[in-house]
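Design a sequence for this backbone.
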């Protein structure tokens, strides 16, 4: 909680980022028809690059496979 007291904006930004990661993973697993290899690749992107991963997923999401 020390982070929240020192800089509440940073705390909220990090919290929102990881909520977006979790929601993106949920969408990837349950709402798309990607192959297993494509899903695993997106999971790696979402967790290894947590700042840009969710934005990349939603930007490059192939809606034809949903």
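Sequence:
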């Amino acid at each position: 909680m020390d982070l929240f007291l020192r800089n509440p904006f940073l705390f909220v930004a990090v919290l929102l980022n990881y909520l977006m990661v979790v929601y993106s993973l949920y969408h990837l697993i349950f709402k798309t028809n990607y192959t297993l290899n494509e899903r695993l690749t997106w999971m790696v992107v979402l967790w290894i690059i947590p700042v840009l991963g969710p934005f990349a997923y939603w930007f490059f999401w192939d809606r034809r496979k949903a």
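Residues 2-65 form one domain.
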